[in-house]
Design goal:
- Residues 108-173 form the Protein-glutamine gamma-glutamyltransferase-like C-terminal domain.
- Keywords: Membrane, Transmembrane, Transmembrane helix.
- The protein is mainly α.
- It is built from seven helices and no strands.
- Helix 4 (100-117) packs parallel to helix 7 (166-185).
- It is elongated.
Length: 187
């Protein structure tokens, strides 16, 4: 303990207690704010594994998946003109790689594309998944349970940052099959 007493004595000789106490409180407040907002304040390139863990809640198509999309199309809030089958193919590839969060996202994209293509809902840029499910459930109430289930899975993974599992992908497949059957069989 002697080393501690000597360190504190040296520190007290350099900075008087009247100044050290407020500086310590200020330092604690800064550390607390940084801790609370972590990792939002980090530059994007320093966010360790955020892409790998799939923490980008974005229903837009990724740049690597743009081969089937017209390059002149705006990226923000646009629904790419891809068939649901393209999203399902991508979802199956992600699932085969064990990237369950991305697979769930692609199955939701396929669901949204089918709902828009079949005229169940209109595409409204900026809608959340919940708003879309509410609108589709209002138009076609029989879709409500499947869409609510899909919304809960997606939101739990992408917004609540719960790790995705193969079970989530299987549940999403079931919800997608239900929506597919009701939308195609009901028209």
């Amino acid at each position: 303990m002697r080393w501690w007493n000597e360190t504190v004595a040296i520190f007290d000789d350099v900075i008087p207690f009247g100044l050290a106490a407020p500086l310590s409180l200020l330092l604690a407040a800064i550390v607390g704010v940084l801790w609370h907002t972590f990792p939002a304040w980090l530059p994007g390139r320093w966010r360790l594994g955020s892409r790998k863990r799939g923490r980008e809640p974005d229903l837009r198509i990724e740049k690597a998946d743009r081969s089937a999309v017209d390059e002149d199309q705006p990226e923000v809030d646009e629904l790419p003109p891809l068939a649901p089958e393209v999203y399902l193919s991508q979802a199956d590839r992600y699932a085969a790689e064990g990237r369950w969060a991305e697979a769930v996202r692609e199955r939701l994209r396929a669901m949204v594309r089918e709902l828009v293509d079949r005229g169940v809902v209109e595409h409204v840029p900026g809608w959340t998944v919940t708003e879309l499910a509410r609108a589709a459930g209002g138009t076609r109430p029989e879709l409500g349970p499947a869409l609510d289930g899909a919304t809960r899975i997606f939101s739990g993974i992408w917004y609540a940052q719960r790790p995705a599992t193969a079970g989530d992908d299987e549940l999403m497949r079931g919800h997608l099959a239900t929506v597919h059957e009701l939308v195609r069989g009901g028209r």
